[in-house]
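Design request, tokens follow.
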């Protein structure tokens, strides 16, 4: 969620204070953060050499799942029905082994290159972890994951003023007034939600619980052999803060890059600092039990390697994309058609992409080290291209 200052006397001002302990050794220079450029428009581009490095049947599956969302899908300057027709045609082409998929895509779609992030798009990865848990607090299993509290209020400001249609705030009623919802420190440190029957399961590792929040979904292996799948239900509405960035900037990681494995290793090696570090990220995620998944923000099941998360306030959910980047492990090129089916608290701004790698440890290893620059294209069906050109001159011929 991008933070904005609301105009007028009833302005809401968000103040975020970050404090972190300085390591004894001199910190290295702060890692540069790629910043959005001033104009995050999609610029019409000559189609690149479209090479798809995944099996075609996975594209067929991803499109079928996309179409399940019905009226919730769109493409830049395209309605749901127009987007659906274009995706059905692409699906039919992908299902024919003899079809020249690259030629079909170039003929049927206009490529809009995302230029809103200097140096190219920034790609990271996420996955669905498999954790060990208990239905009840037991022994070392003392770290709960919570379902959405009934006192959490979600307010879409667009219901009150169309000027704020893209803004949602979260809070609770305290003393007859709307107050911010509890922070991670209050929930996990002060245990303000304990005793309310909100616990879905109990884990034995606070670090694993934190990273379950980051991923937004997971599978919990229970004591009787049952597998309990959980998915994102809501959050406390607080902005996301990267603890990896904090640990890198204060020198705690040394020469290590702030990847998920490096952050986890540091936290487990320094249990005395776990709370101090984890509480810096005030954002807290609540879960729900799901039968099948993992489910993205679009409400459909994600497809390994094909589903991506972006800032849904900038790019339409359900739209078709093409990415060119590389996996950080082994520098393997990633060239593929993808579907926008998810979003996330850390995925904000133009040219920011999170690639879904799948379920389990191997997917976690690949996703955890993924951090690379590349190109992000959105594919606009030609039937909508003239409208796109009128709305965004940068997409004109």
């Amino acid at each position: 969620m991008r933070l904005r200052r609301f105009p007028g006397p009833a302005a809401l001002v968000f103040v975020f204070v970050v404090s972190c302990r300085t390591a004894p050794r001199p910190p290295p220079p702060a890692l540069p953060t790629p910043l959005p450029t001033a104009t995050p428009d999609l610029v019409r581009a000559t189609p690149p050499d479209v090479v798809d490095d995944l099996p075609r049947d996975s594209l067929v599956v991803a499109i079928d799942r996309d179409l399940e969302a019905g009226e919730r899908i769109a493409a830049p300057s395209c309605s749901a029905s127009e987007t659906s027709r274009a995706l059905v045609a692409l699906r039919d082409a992908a299902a024919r082994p003899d079809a020249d998929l690259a030629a079909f895509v170039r003929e049927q779609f206009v490529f809009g290159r995302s230029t809103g992030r200097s140096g190219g798009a920034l790609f990271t990865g996420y996955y669905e972890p498999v954790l060990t848990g208990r239905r009840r607090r037991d022994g070392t299993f003392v770290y709960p994951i919570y379902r959405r509290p009934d006192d959490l209020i979600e307010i879409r400001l667009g219901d009150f003023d169309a000027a704020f249609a893209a803004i949602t705030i979260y809070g609770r009623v305290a003393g007859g007034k709307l107050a911010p919802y509890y922070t991670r420190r209050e929930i996990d440190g002060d245990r303000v939600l304990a005793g309310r029957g909100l616990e879905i399961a109990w884990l034995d590792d606070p670090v694993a619980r934190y990273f379950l929040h980051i991923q937004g979904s997971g599978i919990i292996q229970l004591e009787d052999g049952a597998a309990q799948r959980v998915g994102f239900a809501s959050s406390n509405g607080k902005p996301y803060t990267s603890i990896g960035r904090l640990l890198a900037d204060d020198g705690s990681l040394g020469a290590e890059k702030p990847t998920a494995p490096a952050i986890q290793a540091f936290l487990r090696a320094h249990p005395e600092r776990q709370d101090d570090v984890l509480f810096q990220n005030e954002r807290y995620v609540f879960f729900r039990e799901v039968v099948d998944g993992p489910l993205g923000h679009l409400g459909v099941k994600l497809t390994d390697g094909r589903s991506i998360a972006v800032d849904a306030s900038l790019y339409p959910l359900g739209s078709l994309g093409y990415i060119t980047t590389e996996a950080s492990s082994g520098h393997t090129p990633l060239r593929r058609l993808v579907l926008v089916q998810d979003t996330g608290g850390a995925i904000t701004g133009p040219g920011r992409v999170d690639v879904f790698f799948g379920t389990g440890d191997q997917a976690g290893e690949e996703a955890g080290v993924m951090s690379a620059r590349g190109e992000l294209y959105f594919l606009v069906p030609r039937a909508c291209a003239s409208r796109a050109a009128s709305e965004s001159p940068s997409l004109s011929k």
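Comment from the thread starter after seeing the answer: thanks! The chain has a mean pLDDT of 86.
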